[in-house]
Specification:
Layout (H helix, E strand, L loop, with lengths): L5 H12 L5 E8 L7 E7 L13 E4 L19 H8 L4 E5 L5 H5 L2 H6 L3 H8 L8 H19 L9 E6 L1 H12 L6 E5 L13 H13 L7 E7 L7 H14 L7 E6 L6 H7 L1 H8 L2
Parallel strand pairs: 3-4, 3-5, 5-6, 6-7, 7-8
Antiparallel strand pairs: 1-2, 2-4
């Protein structure tokens, strides 16, 4: 056998020593006793160590089909979460939970509707909700079925300070609801272009009133999860500013630690995956950074 040239040997050694690239694993039609089955995609960072010697934080994200690939994403534009995570060098697992035909009913926070909605609001919301809200069932799926599976299948850091949740639009609402209802599980939440008005055909305050009434008593101030909020200024996002100002006022009234929350406005940006892709590095750093 001829000896391997020095240059080739060096290249082979470098390849052997270089970390494995990031990858996506799919758990198809993940079953649940609470909600309909759906795909779950799991991003594993470059150099992922399955041995358990390294433990990873976990970020759960809604609308999973929009996160990693254009083929399944809405309008053919993805968030590019894998590429952004790679570029940031963040060593964390991202769990993309696909939505279903029941997306609106699974993502609308349930307790504000059931306990804090005015009579006028109840009448307005009936025009949008064709079935009862299913968000409590959706969160039970995440917390009691999916998270235990992820923690068993991958070397995670299962504690709350290493467990986060994030989404856009209605996904922002359900992320805040999750962090409020399960503060012992989620140490932070990212709310991107949060759909505060709820009713698309009118810029009503009725749901925001109910949400603030709920949050005023339910926000877990004693443990203060990290909370990130943002919105743009074009089209649907143009409606969000006044609502977000009310949310920011509540955060200040609650005395939320300044290093545990962020609220940003992105001028000239729209309500779509392209806009969220361009700025998602900010909430990722906020939630997953040191």
């Amino acid at each position: 056998m001829r000896p391997i040239p020095a240059i080739a040997a060096a290249a082979l050694l470098a390849a052997a020593c270089s970390p494995s690239p990031s990858r996506i694993e799919r758990h198809a039609d993940f079953p649940s006793a609470h909600v309909a089955p759906r795909h779950v995609d799991v991003y594993l960072p470059a150099g992922f160590d399955a041995s358990g010697k390294t433990r990873y934080p976990v970020l759960y994200m809604h609308d999973g089909q929009n996160l990693f690939t254009t083929e399944t994403s809405y309008g053919g534009v993805e968030w590019r979460i894998d590429e952004v995570m790679d570029s940031l060098g963040l060593k964390a697992i991202v769990v993309g939970v696909w939505n279903t035909a029941a997306r609106f009913h699974e993502y609308v926070p349930q307790r504000p509707l059931e306990r804090h909605l005015s009579a006028e609001g109840q009448e307005l919301v009936r025009t949008r909700l064709t079935d009862p809200p299913q968000s409590d069932a959706y969160l039970r799926f995440l917390v009691t079925e999916l998270k235990p599976f992820i923690d068993l299948s991958y070397p995670t850091k299962p504690d709350r300070e290493a467990t986060f949740i994030m989404g856009s639009s209605m996904g922002g609402l359900i992320s805040l609801y999750a962090a409020t209802e399960y503060p012992e599980v989620f140490g932070g939440a990212g709310m991107v272009s949060t759909h505060w008005p709820l009713l698309i055909d009118r810029d009503s305050e009725v749901f925001m009133d109910a949400m603030l009434g709920y949050l005023d008593g339910a926000l877990p101030v004693d443990v203060a999860p990290k909370l990130y909020f943002d919105h743009g200024t074009l089209n649907l996002d143009a409606r969000y500013g006044p609502h977000q100002l009310r949310m920011d006022s509540l955060m200040r009234a609650k005395g939320w630690p300044e290093d545990r929350w962020m609220s940003r406005v992105f001028e000239g940006t729209d309500h779509n995956e392209a806009s969220w892709q361009a700025r998602v590095h900010i909430p990722l750093r906020f939630l997953l950074g040191e």
